[in-house]
Amino acid sequence: MEIIDQSPAPAWPRAVLFDLLTALLDSWTVWNAAAGSQAQGRAWRAEYLKRTYGCGAYVPYEQLVREAASHVGLPASAPQALDAGWDKLPAWDGARELLRALRPHCRLAVVTNCSERLGRRAADLLEIDWDVVVTSEQAGFYKPDPRPYQLALEQLGVQATDAAFVAGSGYDMFGTSAVGLRTYWHNRVGLALPAGAPVPDAESATLEPALPWLRSFHAATPTRLQANVQLLD
């Protein structure tokens, strides 16, 4: 008796673009350690994010980190400790496995709010052969300005409709929606979607459901993911 495989044929996007420092790497841990506590690290990180999302055009990343630390009362040693610990940024569970699984099917890119120096060091920690790495310094603007995402698509030679984005921050949704990138939000720490931000196509506290979501990206009837992933229409 012939057995017919009736599972849907793979329908991968041509490219998958990733936020780096929150979607793939656990930068929270290193910021907290540099600050001396989780509470101080969260306050510092929140102030830094406010500055990057507010400035638009690129201001040196390291400068914004130092200014944010000073604003929340941290000593100059905190940014120095962050820089010293940069190469110890841990990957989230499943990050390397997801990238290795995608590598035969999709082009892979990073779009990160970072300097060239630190962005490329962080991207190398994932041990993957990236097709494109775009930093805010290279693009001249911080996300969620559309230009960093657009630059990555141009370098990949891929249209937004044939690419997906894996976000680590809810603010990415402002930029990806402007460009036309369907987005999976790896919301690891359970943050609320920023006011006015478009909803992502999918949201999960882990990276595990991203693979079936991407596998059915161009399917006529996308797979409805269960368990800990929430698909949003």
Question: Could you explain the architecture of this structure?
Answer:
The protein has 233 residues and is α/β, with parallel strands linked by helices. It has two domains: 15-26 and 89-231, Rossmann fold, CATH 3.40.50.1000; 28-87, no CATH class. 39% of the residues lie in helices and 13% in strands. The protein contains ten helices and seven strands. It has a seven-stranded mixed β-sheet, with helices on both faces. Strand 4, helix 9 (172-179) and strand 5 (182-186) form a beta-alpha-beta unit. The relative contact order is 0.17.
Helix proportion range: 25-40%
User: Main beta sheet: strand number and arrangement?
Assistant: 7 strands, mixed
Mean pLDDT: 90
- State the CATH topology of the largest domain: Rossmann fold
Contiguous helical run count: 10
Query: What gap, in angstroms, lies between the N and C termini?
Result: 41 Å
Which segments are poorly predicted (pLDDT under 50) over 5 or more consecutive residues? 1-7, 220-233
Strand order of the largest sheet: 3-2-1-4-5-6-7
Total strands: the figure is 7
Radius of gyration: 18 Å
Based on CA inertia axes, which overall geometry fits? globular
- Series of H and E elements: EHHHHHEHEHHEHEEHE
Percent of residues in beta strands?
5-15%
Structural domains: how many: 2
CATH class of the largest domain: Alpha Beta
